Each structure stands twice: as C-alpha cells, then as structure tokens.
Amino acid sequence: MTVRVGVVGGGLVAQAEHLPYLSSLRDRFSVAALAEPSRTVREALAARYGIEEMYADDRSMLDAGGLDAVVVCSPHGTHAEVVLAALDAGLHVFTEKPMCITLADADAIVAARDRAGKVVQVGTMKRYDPAVEAMLDALPGSAGDLRYVSVVVNDPEFEPFFEPGEIVRGDDVPRELIDRTRRAESEQVEQAVGSGGEDVVRAFSDSFLGSLLHDLSVVHGMLERLGEPLPARVVAGDWWNEGRAVYGAMRLQNGARVDGTWIQVLETFEYRETIQFMFADEVHSLEFPSPWLKQHPTVYRRSRRDGRTVDVRIVNAYDEAFRRELLHFHDCIVDGTPCRTPPEGARLDIEVLTQMFLAASR
Questions:
Q1: Contact 100, 106 (CB under 8 A)
Q2: How far is CA 211 from CA 10, 89, 132, 170, 201, in A?
Q3: Which end of the chain is more exposed for a tag (fewer CB within 10 A), N or C?
Q4: For 295-309, how does the pLDDT look when each residue is reduced to its tens digit (9 = 90+)?
C-alpha cells in the first residue's frame, strides 16, 4: 500500500531528511502535498520533488483532503496543534520531536490518538539506528550491576554539513505569522516551566526538548530494556550560555547516576555525541555522527574482561536511522506493527526534561 503523505513545514529537517527519503521510498509513500508558509520554499521543494499540491498552511491542506498521513516538520510550538488537527481529520501522524512542549498537550495527543485509532509516531530517529538496536540486544538482563550512564554532546549544528544555498530559505513569511508562532511557543514554555523569556525558550524548547531529548530517548529505551522503573528520579539540572548549554541528572533505583549534557559549539565544526552505559563488569558505548551526514556509521562498542584479556565487540552501522523510522511508520500504518516511539514514550521524555529544567532554578 502506498501511503499518501502531506508534509507540514519545509525547513531544515524536511529538506535534509524527510522529503528526500519519502521521495525515494516510492513503493511505500507518495508525497501528495506540502504546507509551507514561504512561497519561495514551497515552490522550490514542489519542483524538486514533484509535489502537486501546495498550501500556505496546514489547515488548508487538511481541508483539501486526499491524504492518509501527515509528516510534521513545523516549528516546535506548532506541533501539538498540527498533530491534533491531523488526528481530528482521521489521519496518521509522524511528528518530529519534540511532540509538544507541555505535558497537558502530550496527554491531549495520547487521548486524541486513542479516539482516532490512528498511528502517532514521534521522530526520535536514534531509536531506529541499527547500532542502538545492537546495543539493546547485547545488554545484560537487568540494571542491577549498572554503575553509571553518561551522555555528552558537543554540537556545531548544521553549518559544516551543507553547502551555502543547499537548503532553500525564504524571506517571504509574513511577519505576523512569525510573531504569532514565536508568541505561541513562548506561552507554551511559560505554561511548562513558569517563564517564557527568550533565554528560557531557547534553553527549554530548543536545547532540552529539541536536542538533549534525542539522547534521553535512547537512554530511556535502554533502561526499559534493563527493567529499570521509569521515570527515574531527577536529581539535578542546569543551563547556561543563554540556553545554548544544558545538563540534567537522574538517580536510578540501585543508586546509579545518569548524567546528560548538550553543548552548542558553533565555532568548532566538531560534532561528537556519545552515550555510555558502565556496568560492574562491562561497558557499552555508542558514538553517533552528525545526523546531517549520510552513510556515516554509528559505532557501538562493548567491552568486557575475559581472564587477562579484554573481549571487545564493535558494530559499525551504516543504515540511515531517518530512513528506517519512515519504513517503521509505513509498517505501523499498513501492517499494524506496534509503534516503537509512541506518544507515551515522548511524554516520558518531556516529563523528565521538564523536571531537569525546573531543578536548575531550585
């Protein structure tokens, strides 16, 4: 079955990942429509990918009908509204992370998904990385001997990975729409953490929910596999550098600690992202490439002692997680495959990150 998809938002992640992969998976998806407020962007992308129907907003696209699903790539503060409207229209939904900003909206999405009986998949693509799957399969049977979990990300964002002009941008989005979108995001952040100031929005919406969430989702998947009760207790949080650096910590049932840090370092051009699970007698680690690099391997490494030697297993996984998550979305719609990254998991991530942010002000 070919799923007819409407894409909402034509920004970086849509251009770099979702539109190319949706278009390449022609036996599974047909990109039937694009909703994007910039006429410059939507016409360029429609020409590039042969998209016949173009709209300035998602409401017009939904009202026109003819779709089976939507892929939501719009700004963070619009996600909840777009997801709920698509479900109300009877469509399946793939939404980029964060699914939403507030826990109230997360609960509303879960309830709407249940009423509609449709698939809602959240785009935490690292959960579909073959190296992550390899680590899940190789973990011990429980978290009893887990001593420490470390997440460290230094992120130069996107500039090193694209040629100038490669990503189409338009300066023709109405100022009123830009202001309204920013105001809605600020109001949602204020509802979530008590303040909607510019630095707070950057720290919470962009850095915690937009970046550190990816790694927390992987950690949550690993802890669930180990049988660890979730959510774990949040014991610390911090943010600095105008919200461009964030940190959070959890304490597990056996006393082990989880530390996570994401740092935006625009001037270095060096991307480094690692997750380590240190057990009493073995260490499991993941090192991710920049998500903008294609066919660059994620490296999974497991080491354990074997007498006077160290037994090391290394997996270099080249398959693209962005492509694999879309294949999974198709399987969920067509075959009824249980969704690996459903709204309930996204709610857990948002709840923990909210607690980490609030811990920073105590």
A1: yes
A2: 19, 30, 18, 24, 13
A3: C
A4: 999 999 999 999 999
Give the sheet arrangement for strand 69-72, strand by strand.
53-55, 29-35, 3-8, 69-72, 92-96, 120-123
Q: Helix (H, G, I), strand (E, B), or coil: what is residue 166?
A: coil
Q: What are the structure tokens assigned to 60, written together?
A: 């017009």
Collect all residues with Cβ–Cβ distance below 8 Å to 265 and sequence separation of at least 6.
154, 155, 156
- Residue 164, C-beta contacts closer than 8 angstroms, at least 6 positions apart: none
Inter-CA distances, 268 with 154, 159, 164, Å: 9, 11, 18
Burial of 229 per CB tally in 10 Å (0-12, 13-18, 19+): exposed
d(Cα 58, Cα 34) in Å, to the nearest integer?
8
Task: Report CA 253 to chain centroid distance, whole Å.
Answer: 26
Average pLDDT over residues 148-157: 97
Give the span between the Cα atoms of 222 and 211, in whole angstroms: 18
Distance, CA of 98 to CA of 297 (rounded, Å) = 25
37-74 residue pLDDT tens: 999 999 999 999 999 999 999 999 999 999 999 999 99
Q: What is the pLDDT of residue 52?
A: 94
Do you know the residue count of the chain?
362
Give the C-alpha distances (Å, rounded to integers) separating 217 from 70, 211, 322, 343.
22, 11, 15, 12
Q: Give the β-pairing of 298-306 and 282-288.
A: antiparallel
Closest CA to 317 of 303, 297, 332: 297
Rounded Cα distance, 328 and 320, in Å: 13
Tokens of 15: 């251009």
By CB atoms closer than 10 A (0-12, 13-18, 19+), residue 310 is exposed
d(CA 270, CA 192): 32
Distance CA(113)–CA(298), nearest Å, equals 32
Global confidence as pTM: 0.97
Residues contacting 357, CB < 8 A, separation 6+: 193, 203, 204, 208, 237, 239, 246, 248
